[in-house]
Amino acid sequence: MEKSRFHFYISGEEKEVLPGSPLWELPLSGKEPCRDHAVASGSARQDREITIGDYFSAVCRFLSRNEVSILISGLEAVFQNPVSYEHIHQISAFLEKHGAFYRPLKIRIDLTDTQTCFFVLNGAVGNPGLSLIEKEVSLLSKLNKSFPKQYLPLVFGWDILNTPKGRIGFFLGEWFQDYKEFHVTAGNHQWQIAIWESDGSCRYLPEKSFLPVYQEAAWILTHYYNIETFEQIYPWHHAAGDFIVRAADGQFQVRLITVRGYSPLTEFGADETEKKNQILPSLLVFFFNLSLRMRMDRLDGTGEAVMMGDEVITATVDGFLDALDEKSKAYEYGDLKRVFISFFNGFDLDQMISIGIAAQDSWAAIPAERRLIKENIEPHCRVLQAIFKTM
Q1: pLDDT at 42
Q2: Which of 189, 219, 311, 387 would suit a FRET pair with 129, their CA atoms being 20 to 30 Å apart?
């Protein structure tokens, strides 16, 4: 495809980024290389760092291959109709904020019939992200095929390119239009939820009004939990922006945008009889982790680790049990919701506290989160006990 059909932007900047412009030459890291260090060490490190222009050029190369066949696959999946090369009028790429692994871009496709479609292009230039791309593409494809209800992005293609300055990996996925990242923030003597708008502003909501989002997030994670193999989506964290939300018709819709791992967090023997006996204990560990982690975030996404209020526990329990109720149709273990409630109520408070403390070891909580759990585990378990005793 002709390069003239590609247009590149940095989100938040109005003007297009063109070859030769200062932004085009800026390192992708956003930091100017230390010239003194490069000269003193006799290296050309500053010349080897991948620039924003290098990254955009790799985007163009990745998307252009085979007459933009990857984009066409995505467009046909969205519109449910055949799409040809000639239908594409313009491709615009918007470089978004980067995360721990990826440097994502929003891709806007303007078609010749005036329709517009969006995709996400996740890109990686460092070893952590490059190592993750193939794994995540495989996991997303697997889970989207294995589970009838989809809360994860579809993937339309991926590859790792060799460039003069190193490898750059990409995968093109579904863009969840109008969905926003959210984080807890400090309000007037109570937590608030800040929904991040695309223009850099925030919309603030009281924590209580946001409880349906945490309930839905708990439902999604339980939905993808495999009762028999103990496989689950992990790691995930609110602080990483893994869940996003859209308000529509007075209700919240929630999606999970990444799957960095899908495996058991509890280790039991391979014997099938032993595994069957461990279904409830493993589910209990999953639930304790879910109930604790659902309350964890960082102030404004990057600040101090905090634990949200007790009402989030109730929302998590509701989401978890609703998903178990639905799983009863897929597994031959009777009414999973009632079975689990009975199992949970067989533990006293001290046992619950011990299980909760042990559960955090399976997800390697950071020191700040461990302190929060230690300070809050007893009241957390008391709330759980009170909730389940009424069922």
Answers
A1: 37
A2: 219
